[in-house]
Amino acid sequence: MPKIKNVSDAIDQATSKNTWPTVEPAADGRGVFVVLRHEGQSVGFHLVPVGTQAGGWSMVTFAIQALDATVSMTSRTIRALPIGGLLTEARRAAGNRADRSAAKAFVKLARPSDARLAAFLADRRGGTERTDKDYAGLALEYALLLDAGERTPVKALAARFGGMAGTWGNRIAEARRRGVLTPSKSGQAGGGLTEKALRLLGWSEGENQV
Length: 210
Known about the structure:
This protein is an alpha+beta fold and 210 residues long.
């Protein structure tokens, strides 16, 4: 069996076998690839363990591919996906089928969220200005929290990564101002990734895979 190096390989293998969900170890030993089927699409996740408890898996990246090769994926299709629910299902599959003893070796891996939010977690004294791509990463973290059912995502960001909730709230407002997070009702949490954010994160419209 060929070794799985990335999410694209995992999706191709699941599609060729016509089997979902599939859970395969990454070729470099860093976590697993989980592929699910959702409404005519293969949705693949690269997950790394961040603890030894059930559900202790963090997403590195994900990809989507239409099962019908003639169908193109669009930004609207991507935004309509229930990523939070699919991610929960992928984590459950990884926890049920992956070798938990092997997972312990990766407990100290940096969380992918830390990488996406690096520009907001580092000491900025004398540093460079944050870019639109930095804010797109923040918008993704915020959108994932919303999709997972978090009612106070700004407070969740502060609790998880440190700092004041007001500071994170200002950052979310700046993400909206930069056009990487859609508007929400005044005083309410909400919004999702814009087409600009999708482009900055490397997910371009009109391609079969994201």
